[in-house]
Design goal:
Strand order of the largest sheet: 3-2-1-9-10
Order of helices and strands: EHEHEHEEHEEEEE
Shape: globular
Helix content: 10-25%
Number of helices: 4
Radius of gyration: 14 Å
Largest sheet: 5 strands, mixed
CATH class: Alpha Beta
CATH architecture: 4-Layer Sandwich
Strand content: 25-35%
Structural class: alpha/beta
CATH superfamily: Metallo-dependent phosphatases
């Protein structure tokens, strides 16, 4: 099983294409939101093109589940033509339960959601900072952002494969 984990694309198609090249052969991509719009707190960088990103996502051959982020709007769902934007997504494969949400709420509430839904892996985004930390029986994972990374500034995604989370620099 190979599961791609991404978040916070914010309208950058070239970064998405780099991520997809890395994720070839994945069974599924789980995305924790903030897809097309850059958001009022993020700078607009070179390459920002939400319309092109929407086309890239629609043509992606790997199945993708997307939770709604705080920068995602109803019109984004129409443009993407995907059944997306549930605030919480539950995906199970090989007896591993992934719970995906954007994560713009307090960390204690995220941990409570992980507990309620019995997540083996809790995927969030929002901070644009990658992390992988255990919380009791749950692994809390944030892939960072391939487009507008914060923290160390390394554009990243994550992959779950062979029972492990690996972070990958997309550049």
């Amino acid at each position: 099983m190979k599961i791609g984990i991404i978040s916070d694309l914010h309208g950058y198609p070239e970064q998405f294409k780099k991520a997809i090249n890395i994720l070839k052969g994945s069974d599924m991509i789980l995305c924790a939101g903030d897809i097309l719009y850059h958001g009022p707190r993020n700078p607009i960088l070179e390459g920002y093109n939400p319309q092109k990103l929407a086309e890239e996502i629609k043509s992606c051959e790997i199945p993708m589940l997307i939770s709604r982020g705080n920068c995602d709007a109803d019109v984004d769902m129409v443009v993407l033509s995907l059944p997306v934007f549930s605030p919480i997504i539950i995906y199970e494969k090989d007896n591993i339960r992934f719970v995906v949400m954007h994560g713009e709420i307090e960390e204690d509430k995220i941990k409570n959601i992980a507990r309620i839904y019995k997540a083996d892996i809790m995927v969030t985004g929002h901070t644009h900072i990658r992390k992988c930390e255990p919380y009791f029986e749950t692994l809390m994972v944030n892939p960072g952002s391939p487009s507008v990374p914060k923290g160390d500034g390394i554009p990243s995604i994550a992959v779950f494969e062979d029972g492990e989370i690996k972070f990958i620099n997309v550049n």
